[in-house]
Amino acid sequence: MPQPPNILTIAGSDSGGGAGIQADLKTIMALGCYGTSVITALTSQNGLGVAGIFAPEPDFAASQLETVLQGFPISAAKTGMLFSAGIIRAVSPILRRQKFPLVVDPVCVSQSGSPLLQEDAVTALKEELLPDCALLMPNRPEAELLSGLRITDLDEAVVAGEKLLSLGAKAVLVKGGHMESSIVVTDVLCMAGQAPKTLPQAKVETRNNHGTGCTLSAAIAVGLGKGLPMQVAVTKAQEYLNLALRKSYNPGKGWGPVNHAAKVL
Fold this sequence. Notes:
alpha/beta, 6-stranded mixed β-sheet, 3-stranded antiparallel β-sheet
């Protein structure tokens, strides 16, 4: 049996299990890869919201990253909740030295509305992490924050995506989950030197959508780690997330998670 690719997630821990590191590792394993992790924050969290956040010292986040890279050949990586400017500035120089593709999910706010990225960390994210990353994948509010533009429709999503390319990312995926539509969710993929592409998926009506962004970004990292072209990696990840939403259930109170095991059930 060939060795599966090693995928790295750099993100926060969700004690409720539906998002963050837990969602990433479930996704990576469900899609046939081996997951490694750097934990940037611990959250006290369930489907009702975030009760507290504890972040390690930036040097310890960097130590985790260095140690993982010394022990495992990594095929692709993703970042999720990075929380502070200090953590971003500690891990970014290490990531810039690597050859594998990096997917950046600029996690700013939880589904319940709790801030997951400190205000001064936005500048650090733009300056330190976005240049040369393989893919930046903001949702609509994050794209508005990073681009300074208002987004109300797909045309404006394209304009914002193309502006975000100027920050240095090789590709930008503006996620459409926050767009108003009763039928489809349409993500916009912008890649340098290419015409923007709209990538629709049928909308799934469910309240069990906790961790969708984490799941999508981890699935894209898996695709890139397997050597797939960017658009193929994105569309395959969309299909996985759509299936996980269709087979979702609620194990507790509040917002339930997607079903990460949907593909193997």
